[in-house]
Amino acid sequence: MATLSDIGLAAAINILTAFAFFIAFAILRIQPVNDRVYFPKWYIKGLRSNPLSTGAFVGKFVNLDFRSYVNFLNWMPAALQMPEPELIDHAGLDSAVYLRIYLIGLKIFVPIAFLAFSILVPVNWTNSTLERSNLTYSDLDKLSISNIPRGSRRFWTHLVMAYVFTFWTCNVLKTEYEIVAKMRLHFLASEKRRPDQFTVLVRNVPPDPDESVSELVEHFFLVNHPSDYLTYQVVYNANELSNLVNKKKKMKNWLDYYQIKYSRNQSRKPSLKVFIVDDILLKSPTGFLGLFGNRVDAIDHYTSEIEKLSREISLERDKIVNNPKSIMPAAFVSFKTRWGAAVCSQTQQSRNPTVWLTEWAPEPRDVYWDNLAIPFVSLTLRRLVIAVAFFFLAFFFMIPIAFVQSLANIEGIEKALPFLKTIIEKKVVKSFIQGFLPGIALKIFLIFLPSILMLMSKFEGFISLSSLERRSATRYYIFQFINVFLGSIITGTAFQQLDNFIHQSATQIPKTVGVSIPMKATFFITYIMVDGWAGVAGEILRLKPLIIYHLKNFFMVKTEKDRKEAMDPGTLGFNTGEPQIQLYFLLGLVYAVVSPILLPFIIVFFALAYVVYRHQIINVYNQEYESAAAFWPDVHGRIIVAVIVSQLLLMGLLSTKEAAQSTPLLITLPVLTIWFHMFCKGRYEPAFVRYPLQEAMMKDTLERAREPNLNLKSFLQNAYIHPVFKGEDDSDSDEAPEEFEKEPDLVPTKRQSRRNTPLPSKHSGSASSSMREAQDYPLL
Amino acid sequence: MATLSDIGLAAAINILTAFAFFIAFAILRIQPVNDRVYFPKWYIKGLRSNPLSTGAFVGKFVNLDFRSYVNFLNWMPAALQMPEPELIDHAGLDSAVYLRIYLIGLKIFVPIAFLAFSILVPVNWTNSTLERSNLTYSDLDKLSISNIPRGSRRFWTHLVMAYVFTFWTCNVLKTEYEIVAKMRLHFLASEKRRPDQFTVLVRNVPPDPDESVSELVEHFFLVNHPSDYLTYQVVYNANELSNLVNKKKKMKNWLDYYQIKYSRNQSRKPSLKVFIVDDILLKSPTGFLGLFGNRVDAIDHYTSEIEKLSREISLERDKIVNNPKSIMPAAFVSFKTRWGAAVCSQTQQSRNPTVWLTEWAPEPRDVYWDNLAIPFVSLTLRRLVIAVAFFFLAFFFMIPIAFVQSLANIEGIEKALPFLKTIIEKKVVKSFIQGFLPGIALKIFLIFLPSILMLMSKFEGFISLSSLERRSATRYYIFQFINVFLGSIITGTAFQQLDNFIHQSATQIPKTVGVSIPMKATFFITYIMVDGWAGVAGEILRLKPLIIYHLKNFFMVKTEKDRKEAMDPGTLGFNTGEPQIQLYFLLGLVYAVVSPILLPFIIVFFALAYVVYRHQIINVYNQEYESAAAFWPDVHGRIIVAVIVSQLLLMGLLSTKEAAQSTPLLITLPVLTIWFHMFCKGRYEPAFVRYPLQEAMMKDTLERAREPNLNLKSFLQNAYIHPVFKGEDDSDSDEAPEEFEKEPDLVPTKRQSRRNTPLPSKHSGSASSSMREAQDYPLL
């Protein structure tokens, strides 16, 4: 049992660590040479093109103005100064709302901590249960619920406090949901014209023997949305092309590398060894494969390779555009008005609900192109597979790791790679391997976990990056809940817990977990300091991007444009960041009644994280997409889950404390909370899922009044082209877009049976064309 | 333990009872005097106006054609002859699809019974576990899974059979879902023009200080659906009026009664005693209150009363039409096209998702008028209240009944009503009260249960009779599942079960229930025969409507029209009938693997019920509404629940039989079944919830081609008027409808701030009016 002074020491160490990070950051960030690592956002926005240097040559790399070293924390007030509307303008709504999660943390926990310390702590402290018992205990435990004797009337305080805390949390949640919903609607309403406002993504276009996908889409929407339909953009299967383009980009990087190497040392022409294995060209400038093969001139080699690839790319491009099979059964359909798009995205188009699936198109940069063509049956199957896979991942992930650990012992390595025997047998190496390898296997798994979860979401078939991240975040939260939260409270692997739980009664589970909670308070305090405080402080240092940027800058940067590309601003990383915050909500709410001593640590985390991430959002991160805070219902839902978990665990804990008369009162709490959640869902969630017609109509009307002669078609024509077709940095891609502008306004039907009928009139409102359509889709 | 011969005897008794019912029915139905009881449907449809009599005077009442008595079962083939499309035409899609539930029962259980008897029964029978054990057992038990020794390899047969049965059931369910979805779409597509196709119900019209509800609705839809909006119909709060009208109808019945009495016995003018208590006129022609008061002429009295009420009604009617406060914040909004209505019903209108709630309007006769004005917050609160109330009803309903039973003993009655003491003290009466009263309290509760559940649904705020019935059916099913199914398997009240269950582990519950299942087979066989067979046979006799019709016919019928009203065809009663069928599905699926002997009894039930209900639907029932089989997703979902319950219980049973190696294989079954359900939900359910735009557009286009000059507005104008305003049988209601036709085509805005702007142009597409609207609904 840790004493107060133990915790104090740990806190001091962690505070010092955090300070060390901050000082390092303060020094590194004002060096002009690091400017692009710590302020990339400003470069990307075009507001800064050169570091603010002190003039002299050295001043271009090192900051010589010693005054700027004095106030090493002055970035903090600077980060807080920017008002929210400006922040939304600067970094987007997603980022601004993301920061509100930390603010909610403060709004919930500061009053709760105040109440807990002024009411609960005295109530707990003024007992002597622990003193009279034979248990070892610390001052910390005297502050917690453990110090209350069994069946004491003092538990009524905790019960009332549980109500107060729940009420307060729900109150904050409701207010925030309302604010965020308004912010989202305001953001959508005040946004400038964007292609996704007019566009709907249509998936599962049914196959048709007589007509191509393009013709089918054109016909279908001309008939069923006659007054609003404008144009469409088919989706090409350009995965192969995008591979080639990526390959070319890599080659170019190597070319740049060798050209710089040559320009620095003109005496020696760089060369590399090339050898041919089964028609696959393996190039290895470094590494042990570089030992064999023919030595060639590196610059010449890459130049010719790039030329070859350019030719391949243009061939592939032609193939995609001309081959109807490369058109996927999906399309981006654009409408003349936002109203038309809102209508189409919210309604069911066809009598078969698995074809002509329409949904609001994500932003062009938010689209995840690979998943656009997955058919409905496959989607449901994928969902089943991933659900089962995730279940096993969450509960049984220790099994393969234990297997790897058992392999990764000295004997296993010696067997597999006998030539390493001499090195391994050295004592230092041996003890290192024996001590660290098992831990490393687990650590590597945990590092790769977000990527694994992201892969799962991709396999599941989501079509936008934002939804991929949201789903991954949900899974990551569940994983953390099971393996970090429950796993720390009840020792044993997740599988053992599962086994315990299904053999325990529904009332026993909260008891089992609830009883262990007070004992784990010190563990979680340490966890918050190491993972939370130090983690946040480390975040601001950006050690990894710093190193990579300088390596790239040294080896590959030729022009300013290259330097711009070498910057890696990174993103907020919703899929990993948000579940981590949620864990702190969970801890805070669970311990609020049980051991209030935890709360100050959580408050420090939220405050620190708020400042740091606000700084990062202003100066560093560059969001890949803008979902207009579409993730808020998830955030809200997970905090609600935390509230309910805390209530159930308190119920379990109190029932072991023989305060059984409180059970009925405690049962009503989760019921009320669930009802509150349902109320919020009905009241606010639609704002995050649907686009109200009133809003759409209003924006349409305003626009029509302001710009009566707007040519919307040309604005929308190329908005949803696969990024490889756009390729601004690719000189030979300029021809491509024209291909997409040639779509005829009207596609004559190609149906065999109807070849001899006259061409349909343009507007399907007339009887003839719709009658034809009616016949084409017979009644049963 | 019942033996085979016991079951045989019970079956014989029940078969005889059923036959007795059938013979009674066969005799009663061919009497011309009962014609309106057994063939009301034909009278309502206007296909029959007089019983087919044999000519003579007596023949008008009694059938003298003795040949027709011979083939007393000839109604059965007659009921089966009508083909399904004709049945849909004759009785509506709801009824036709309702019959398919019985057919599904046959489709599922006939092949399963065949397989079970050819494979499972021999496997069970050829063991000797029971013979060797000391337990008493019957031949019936030898056919069941109880006869297999612990840990036997023969359990693999049951496992495989569980897979086969699940697969077969899912297969039938999928096929049926597909067929019913197609039937529904075809029905909707081939329907003739109906007001609800063009109409959307708008609820929660937000209050506005400057404009009335009518103006607000008109403005909102003119602006947001400019091209399709046609007209609207506000909803009046006519509950008071409808009370008055009902009162008048009752008075009229009494007047008729006395007039007939007088015409039969002209010597004595009928009179009744009237006395005044606190301004309330108590009239009691019979009963003990009739002993006091002034004797007046009955016919004069009722005539004057009716006149008085007529005046009140016309006053109230004027009040409603002229008082803006009697307009509820809801409206039926009609569109020019089905497409427009489909769009409006499927989209969100306002940025605040709790106002301007639109949904597809129910049929005019399906509307439940009282609930149209419940605000959103109240709705969510009501849902919470009802959820909690139903929980207590389902688990604790025995408590008040036990309380009533404890009151309703001899001493309690003597105390409350001392003057009955002399009667009660008689021995016969005493033993009757002591023996029956406690049972009667429970029986009365069970009789009133459907009404209680219906009241709950009404309180919850559903706005159509069909949705009220669907919700009541769900609750009734849950109640039956807990109290009949579980309650019979594990003895004890529902509350005791609940208490057991929450103290048992998740794996223990299926074990506890599963183990008791084989032992209860004989009980459920008896239950099926008494409740199922005899119940169905009793249904066709229609004893209650028969008696009531003849009473009414004798006392109150003056004209043919009165006689028509005296007919009570009744309805299918989805809210009680469907949950009962579902109980048989549950029993059949649970016992299919465990005790296949139950299956033939269930098959007989389904076959019998199918024939009987087909007859009743053709000849008797008159549906109050037509929901186009909107209940099918519920039916499907409950059968899926039954499948999953059967799988879990089998898992529990097998785990006690030490066939643990089968557990992983058994766990995958519910997972697959749930996935199958999700697949079906995505694939077919939208057809029951939304109206595809393609369909709407097709029907619109066809109609426009056929009837280019249709005046839709006049067709829709009075479709959604509260039934009391229509009142065809009320002479003084003729003036009212005109009031509703005077709605101006355009409502000038009344907003104070904009009085001085010119009148808005008619189409909101123009900038001025929409800009105004945009200002009226400011951005935040």
TrEMBL record, chains A, B:
Pfam families reported in the protein's UniProt record: PHM7_cyt, RSN1_7TM, RSN1_TM
The keyword RNA-binding is annotated on this UniProt entry: no
Transmembrane stretches, start-end: 6-28, 101-125, 384-408, 436-455, 476-495, 583-613
Gene Ontology MF, one: calcium-activated cation channel activity
Any coiled-coil regions, as ranges: none
Keyword Secreted: no
InterPro entries: Csc1-like, CSC1/OSCA1-like_7TM, CSC1/OSCA1-like_cyt, CSC1/OSCA1-like_N
One annotated Gene Ontology cellular component of this protein: plasma membrane
Domain CSC1/OSCA1-like 7TM region: 382-654
Record key words, sorted: Calcium, Ion channel, Ion transport, Membrane, Transmembrane, Transmembrane helix, Transport
Region annotated Disordered, chain positions: 727-780
Feature: compositional bias, Polar residues: 755-772
UniProt biased composition (Acidic residues): 729-742
Domain CSC1/OSCA1-like N-terminal transmembrane: start-end pairs: 9-174
Subcellular location: Membrane
Domain CSC1/OSCA1-like cytosolic, chain residue ranges per copy: 197-371
Bilayer topology: Multi-pass membrane protein
Family recorded in the similarity comment: Belongs to the CSC1 (TC 1.A.17) family.
Protein name: Calcium permeable stress-gated cation channel 1
Organism annotation: Dovyalis caffra
Lineage summary: Eukaryota, Viridiplantae, Streptophyta, Embryophyta, Tracheophyta
